[in-house]
């Protein structure tokens, strides 16, 4: 029997678990298939991608939430889901974080693809609302916890926070299959942009309730 715990804020000790579940969740995501086209190495490189993103930015300066499961009441909890949020008062992808992580990106992504990656990242930033908003950078659950409602629970927590503060929520995806998931939570596609590098970007916005 799997017992799901209440989601909680992530700590630095959770970075490895966050990177693990997000890399497993995103293995077939179009963005990561483009960024890391080699099937053999994609999982490891995606895991390192999220370790950098969470470890340097979203865990210490953002608002990262994790959800855990136990096989039974006596088992140690295991991180099975994670959501990386950026509240309007924080910038987990800001200049200081970029300076600290930049030396790692070249070796991880490769020089041939690095310029395109920077261009895609800039497109995301330009598409974000100008007014204060809650930004969802990543949401995923381990495939072992798929269908348990964990992803929806992590998402709903952030949406409740945005509603209480009266601010919109912004996210993006290159996976058209996930658009319907977000639409069920009140998001709408605010913009579609065809990128010559990575495919169609779907920018999603949810107004406060």
- Kindly provide the radius of gyration, computed on alpha-carbon positions and rounded to a whole number of angstroms: 17 Å
Overall helicity? 40-55%
Shape: globular
Q: Per DSSP, what share of the residues sits in E-state strands of 2 or more residues?
A: 15-25%
| Strand runs, count | 8
| Major sheet attributes | 8 strands, mixed
Structure description:
The chain is an alpha+beta fold. The mean pLDDT is 88. Helix 1 crosses helix 3 and helix 3 packs antiparallel against helix 4 (95-109). It is built from seven helices and eight strands. Strands 1, 2, 3, 4, 5, 6, 7 and 8 form an eight-stranded mixed beta sheet that branches. Helices cover 44% and strands 24% of the residues. The protein has helices spanning 15-25, 30-35, 39-58, 95-109, 111-127, 150-165, 176-183; strands at residues 3-4, 8-9, 63-70, 78-86, 134-141, 169-173, 188-195, 199-206. It is globular and about 50 Å long.
């Amino acid at each position: 029997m799997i017992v799901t715990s209440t989601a909680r804020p992530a700590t630095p000790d959770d970075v490895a678990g966050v990177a693990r579940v997000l890399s497993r969740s995103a293995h077939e995501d179009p963005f990561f298939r483009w960024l890391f086209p080699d099937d053999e190495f994609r999982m490891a490189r995606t895991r390192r991608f999220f370790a950098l993103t969470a470890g340097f930015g979203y865990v210490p300066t953002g608002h990262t939430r994790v959800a855990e499961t136990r096989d039974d009441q006596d088992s140690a909890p295991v991180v099975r889901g994670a959501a990386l949020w950026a509240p309007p008062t924080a910038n987990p992808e800001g200049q200081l974080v970029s300076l600290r992580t930049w030396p790692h990106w070249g070796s991880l992504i490769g020089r041939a693809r690095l310029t395109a990656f920077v261009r895609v990242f800039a497109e995301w930033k330009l598409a974000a609302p100008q007014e204060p908003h809650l930004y969802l950078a990543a949401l995923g659950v381990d495939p072992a916890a798929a269908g348990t409602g964990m992803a929806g629970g992590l998402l709903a927590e952030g949406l409740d926070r945005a509603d209480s503060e009266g601010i919109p929520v912004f996210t993006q995806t290159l996976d058209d299959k996930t658009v319907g998931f977000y639409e069920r939570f009140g998001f709408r596609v605010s913009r579609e942009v065809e990128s010559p590098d990575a495919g169609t970007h779907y920018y999603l916005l949810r107004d406060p309730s």
